[in-house]
Structure prediction request, 474 residues.
Amino acid sequence: MRIARLAGPTDFEGWRKTARALRLAGVTPGEVVWAAGGEGELFADGDPAPAADAPAFTAPRAFVDLAQEVICHRDPERFNLLYRLLWRLQDQPALIQDITDPDVARAREMAKPVARASHKMKAFVRFRLLPGVEPETYAAWFEPMHHVVEKTAPFFVRRFAGMRFSILTPEACAHWDGDTLRFTPGVSRDAAPADDLLEDFWRTYYASIFNPARLKVKAMQAEMPKKYWRNLPEARLIPDLIASAAGRTAAMVAQAPTEPSRHAAKATKPVRDVVLEGTPPSLEALVAGVDGCRRCPLWKDATQGVPGEGSATARLMFVGEQPGDQEDLAGRPFVGPAGQVFDKALAEAGVPREQTYVTNAVKHFKHELRGKKRLHKTPVQSEISACRWWVDHERRLIRPRVIVALGATAALSVFGKATPIAANRGRAIQLPDQAQGVVTYHPSFLLRVPDAEAKEQGFKALVEDLALAWKLAA
Prediction:
């Protein structure tokens, strides 16, 4: 009988070297006793010499991968099982593929809980700040079901590469200093830190994401067994959350339903049954149809269409560029920051907004996402041309005496061609439908001017142009 002693319970390289030497020496599985840990040579009774007629052999990769998992299991028979499989592979090269074989089936069954134990370690390790330790270092206590510390520690190195930490367990400890991952013998629970300042944040986060209506206690405990609770800061909340779940669910059901997402509702509803071709019969029908417009792709990313608003008999009509972020959410033109500048300029020019009609050259908000922010993008000519159908019919139904184009995009829509603002502002431009046009700066342009003096001069010019338009409309 030979005694093969390994350096530790997960000494895979030692097992592989020893098993290969035993196999080449022709030592059968029944002649070997495996032992993990302790002092002494690999073989208590001397290294085995290879048999004279020992054939060369290699183990398939599938066996090596399986053995690396199985060796992390707590079952002391794992070494004998693996050696028995290695011995048989010489005559049965495809043995690992035979899932009906008792040894293969047993090895696969041992690999499964090892994978689960590694997963639980990734899920339930909670780091705590070590007080008074410089540089800043964290530690966590965990009690794995199998020997998975060495197997799983590289995951935490990848996940927290810039953080110094230790994972303490009863059998082995992993330490990362930012450069080197090393392992030391296990310690007792007393060596692990107690609560730190982040505990309350964990509990607040867990309580906020807990959904009582979806609670399934058995499923939760299957995924997060009670034996792990004592090491989790949020576990203190679980009994009370479970006890109050039924009452909270009933209260949620009794509450009025929340408003569905406008974007989701818009994406699923059919286009409104309104006149989108030909001649709209009224301004009301035209306004109602804006949200159903599909003339260009801008509707897909907008919350809703933004129609014009104001007096149906207005003598003065304002055409802006497009809705902004707040206009897109409110469904009304000029209610955001640019709208505030516009209202201020109207007041100084003596123009009552309620006696005018305010609309945009483009009816949907064109933007791009930067993180969570929606940043304005200037409409292109094809989008302006597609939306001009709406502006033309607004002009036909309202029949204003004067139309003010606020900005270059609006000027392109109103005049049908590029109309430089600096060269054309401050005067009336005759339009084909007998109305007169005035071109001026868009209020949002003034918000972007960094120089205070230039901004003041621009606002003064805007007020002058609005006053001119109101005089022409009289």
